[in-house]
């Protein structure tokens, strides 16, 4: 798993790539926590369009991140490919995790959520 952070004028983007399995789960959790440290951004995009696999540990971490973001009043969207969105939807997490298929759509959705 690899992580890259890209602050943008509209949102902070955390780009995750590779596999999110039980071995990568602690690093994934730290990466997501880093996105919210110090309240540097109230809008976050988690870009997982380059992730090849998400295991149950990764889904659990996403669920915890969604709850933490809600408590901190952070607007966020998960951009993911089929390997990410399918398990999120299968577990019913899409009810609490806003998702999009592209980063561009995620920027649009973050903006829309922030103004609703």
Question: What can you tell me about this protein's structure?
Answer:
The chain is α/β, with parallel strands linked by helices and 116 residues long. The protein is built from four helices and five strands. A five-stranded mixed β-sheet has the order 1-2-3-4-5, sandwiched between helices. The chain is globular and about 35 Å long. It starts with a strand and ends with a helix.
Shape: globular
Number of strands: 5
Largest sheet: 5 strands, mixed
Question: How many helices does DSSP assign?
Answer: 4
Query: Strand-and-helix sequence, N→C?
Result: EEHEHEHEH
Low-confidence stretches: none
Characteristic key phrases:
alpha/beta; single chain; globular; 116 residues; 5-stranded mixed beta sheet
């Amino acid at each position: 798993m690899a992580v890259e952070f890209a602050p943008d004028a509209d949102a902070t983007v955390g780009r995750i790539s590779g596999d999110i399995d039980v071995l990568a789960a602690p690093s994934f959790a730290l990466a997501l926590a880093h996105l919210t440290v110090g309240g540097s951004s109230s809008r976050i995009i988690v870009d997982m369009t380059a992730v090849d696999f998400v295991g149950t540990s990764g889904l659990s971490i996403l669920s915890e991140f969604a709850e933490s973001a809600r408590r901190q009043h952070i607007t966020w969207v998960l951009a993911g490919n089929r390997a990410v969105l399918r398990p999120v939807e299968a577990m019913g997490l899409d009810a609490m995790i806003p998702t999009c298929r592209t980063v561009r759509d995620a920027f649009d959705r973050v903006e829309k959520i922030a103004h609703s």
